[in-house]
Design brief:
Blueprint: H1 9-12, H2 71-75, E1 79-81, E2 84-86, E3 96-102, H3 112-120, E4 126-132, H4 143-160, E5 163-169, H5 175-189, E6 195-198, H6 209-224, E7 232-234, H7 237-240, H8 243-248, E8 257-264, H9 270-281, E9 286-292, H10 304-316, E10 321-326, H11 354-365
Parallel strand pairs: 3-4, 3-10, 4-5, 5-6, 6-7, 7-8, 8-9
Antiparallel strand pairs: 1-2
Helix pairs in contact: 3-4, 5-6
């Protein structure tokens, strides 16, 4: 995930140690830079230079927002049936949308105007505000400001008629704080079918799946006291790559729960698609709640060949997905905006990065489908 500074460097330093690293830290998009496939063979760099391979998606004309049925009006109350997200009539539902950067570093974009623009011009079904937890200025040190920013996006999504994933954007366990936050959130918005809860963004390597199950049970219990049926997304170890651990020991006695997988296409390639496919085949409902075309650090170039392979994989499996992120970090491949991008939406092509142009065109290609 993008950030403007390093934090907890002493805690993270061991990830860099050793002559051979199986995983590591990326400050850009994802705290996972695994260079090996499932067999432990180093993943080669992208085979195509920029502009080669699968190119930017072609822009598609879409009807005006006033002429389209909103996603919530179309799907209504979501549920989980087997491994599939379904709508109020029991038909498969696929949500495609855009995530926001950390609220503590890109607060300017946390407003209803940006949400409206993403619905009207990008034709998103869902947005994902990312409430930072640990860094300075984030939730643990300034909860009132964080909640205000998140609620601005939630209320903007409700007004626009789209879904919204409230993302507890943490990398470490903070169970008492998460229980309190999600209890309050569910009490306020649990009667709205728009709201989806993502209760732990990306557990790192030191959080085990048994620990995460205990955490999830506590937070889900707090939500269900106020909201009996909205979707809840649960993270898994190693930055949401260990969906295989979930498949071997899923939560029991819970309804309308899904599990997250995060990918960045130039790092997480066929080994993660195979792992995810095996989990789906085992009946695990997967939501790709964060993704992008770059490597996991956010640097380098977009790998359009692998990015398209992921799109094909998600389409084949009817997986909902979110792209990262509404941010304008200089030189970051996964940020959708050039530095200084309009804080109210209404973005011109010149304000969009390569990722921004590609995702806008890609989301528009699914509009109304």
């Amino acid at each position: 995930m993008p950030s403007n500074r390093l934090y907890s460097l002493a805690k993270l330093w061991p990830l860099f140690a050793g002559a051979v690293l199986s995983s590591g830290l990326g400050y850009g998009c994802l705290h996972e830079t695994k260079p090996a496939d499932a067999a432990g063979v180093a993943t080669p760099p992208a085979s195509q230079p920029p502009g080669k391979g699968s190119m930017l998606a072609t822009e598609t004309s879409i009807p005006a927002a006033s002429e389209r049925t909103t996603p919530v009006a179309s799907h209504g109350q979501l549920a989980v049936k087997g491994a599939q997200l379904v709508d109020a009539s029991g038909k498969p539902a696929v949500l495609r949308g855009q995530g926001f950067g950390w609220d503590n570093w890109w607060p300017q974009y946390y407003n209803a105007d940006v949400v409206r623009w993403l619905w009207e011009d990008w034709c998103v079904d869902v947005v994902r505000p990312a409430m930072g937890i640990e860094p300075d200025g984030a939730y643990l040190s300034n909860s009132a400001a964080s909640k205000q920013r998140i609620e601005a996006v939630v209320e903007g999504a409700i007004a626009a008629g789209i879904y919204v994933i409230v993302d507890w954007h943490a990398h470490n366990l903070h169970e008492p704080e998460a229980v309190a936050f999600f209890s309050e959130l569910a009490a306020k918005y649990g009667d709205k079918p728009n709201v989806i809860y993502e209760i732990f963004n990306e557990p790192e390597k030191d959080e085990t799946w048994p620990q995460l199950k205990e955490y999830a049970a506590a937070v889900i219990g707090a939500i269900r006291k106020h909201d009996p049926d909205n979707i809840i997304i649960v993270g898994n170890p190693e930055w949401d790559q260990r969906i295989d651990l979930v498949a071997g020991d899923p939560l029991q006695g819970q309804t309308n729960v899904m599990y997250s997988v995060h990918f960045y296409a130039d790092t997480h390639r066929d080994w993660l698609r195979q792992r995810t496919q095996a989990a789906i085949d085992a009946g695990i409902p997967v939501f790709v709640s964060e993704s992008g075309g770059s490597d996991a650090s956010g640097s380098g170039q977009n790998n359009f060949v692998e990015w398209q392979a992921w799109q094909d994989f998600m389409d084949k499996n009817h997986l909902s997905r979110i792209n990262w992120s509404v941010s304008d970090k200089t030189g970051e491949a996964c940020s959708i905006l050039e530095p200084g991008g309009n804080a109210k939406g209404n973005w011109t092509p010149a304000e969009l990065t390569e990722s921004g142009k590609h995702m806008r065109n890609l989301l528009r290609s699914y509009c109304g489908k």
